[in-house]
Amino acid sequence: MDIEQEIADLKRRVGDLEGAVNVLTGQLSHVQPALRKLGETTAERFDRTDDGISQVTRRLERLDTHVWSLRDDLPDMLRSALAAGPPGHHDS
Asked: pLDDT, tens digit, for every residue of 30-80?
């Protein structure tokens, strides 16, 4: 093969590679803002999820407090109810 022809072929192939790199670079410049927006949206959603989980946790803690309070108060409540007798029954 002729050296001049090989050089021309190499120049053409390098030009093709440069063109492909330029196309990819252009596509990546369009993808980068979309990725940034996706990251921001994801962070906002995680923040909202964290807030929701915090609310659920606070409610469960309050429920736990009420259950423990009922556990402490239930024996006295049952004792009072049993001492009062059935409804409509009056000791005379």
From this structure: 888 999 999 999 999 999 999 999 999 999 999 999 999 998 899 998 999
42 occurs within a structural domain? yes
For residue 61, tell me if it sits in a domain: yes
How far apart CA 64 and CA 73 sit, in angstroms, is 14
Residue pointed to by tokens 């001049």 = 4
List Cβ neighbours of 91 (8 Å cut-off, separation of 6 or more).
Answer: 85
- How far from chain centre, in Å, is Cα 4? 61
Q: Cα(84)–Cα(78) distance, rounded to whole angstroms?
A: 10
Distance CA 39, CA 43 (A): 6
Indicate the number of domains in the chain.
Answer: 1
Q: DSSP label at 87?
A: T
Neighbouring C-alpha atoms within 13 Å toward the C-beta of 61: 6
What pTM did the predictor assign? 0.49
